[in-house]
Amino acid sequence: MSATTLIRSCNEAGKDIIRQCEGLRLKAYLCPAGKLTIGYGHTGPDVKTGMTITEEDANTLLSRDLVAAEKAIAGVVSVTITDNQFSALVSFVFNLGAGNFYGSTLLKKLNANDIFGAADEFPRWNKVNGQVLAGLTRRREAERTLFLSDATKLT
């Protein structure tokens, strides 16, 4: 990819799902999956036990994390999708990681242009260590709703 290639960006509706579902935590904590997390769901080797950040730092981390999720989607979705569909997928990848998305039935159905079949895959991703989490169930429903909100534009 050249430096001049523009990557599509997550829209505000997608960012709102992420912000609402992740919440803002300015002190590092363990998420339900057992990962050290800070800000709006930021994980990684730069997050340390006892670490604190500002809200501005959290927004910077979110912006950086969104770019990674946006690039991950841009590289594997081979069909035309709407901005809302893209943004729902960004929230999904932000939460679950690109690796889970790459191997998902959701991506397979999407790339087969089965938009409604792909949408029906969102709710299946509501567990951590085999346990259903109400927060993930709500998040997947919000992502699915956003994904389908303008699906008829492509049919």
- How many distinct domains? 1
Calculate Rg over CA atoms: 15 Å
State mean pLDDT (0 to 100 scale): 93
- The H-and-E topology, N to C, reads as HEEEHHHHHEEH
* Main pleated sheet: 3 strands, antiparallel
Q: Ranges with pLDDT <50 over ≥5 residues?
A: 1-5
Distance between the termini: 30 Å
Number of helices: 7
Shape: globular
| Largest sheet: spatial strand order | 1-2-3
Fraction of residues in β-strands: 5-15%
Query: What class would the helix/strand composition place it in?
Result: mainly alpha
CATH topology: Lysozyme
**Helical content band:** 40-55%
Named at the architecture level, the CATH assignment is Orthogonal Bundle
Q: Which CATH first-tier class would you pick?
A: Mainly Alpha
Tell how many strands the DSSP assignment holds.
5
Describe the structure.
With 155 residues, the chain is mainly alpha-helical. It has a single domain, classed as Lysozyme. Helix content is 50%, strand content 10%. It is built from 7 helices and 5 strands, in the order H-E-E-E-H-H-H-H-H-E-E-H. It has a 3-stranded antiparallel beta sheet. The longest helix is centred in the middle third of the chain and has 20 residues. The chain is globular. It starts with 11 loop residues before the first helix and ends in a 7-residue tail after the last helix. The N terminus is likely disordered.
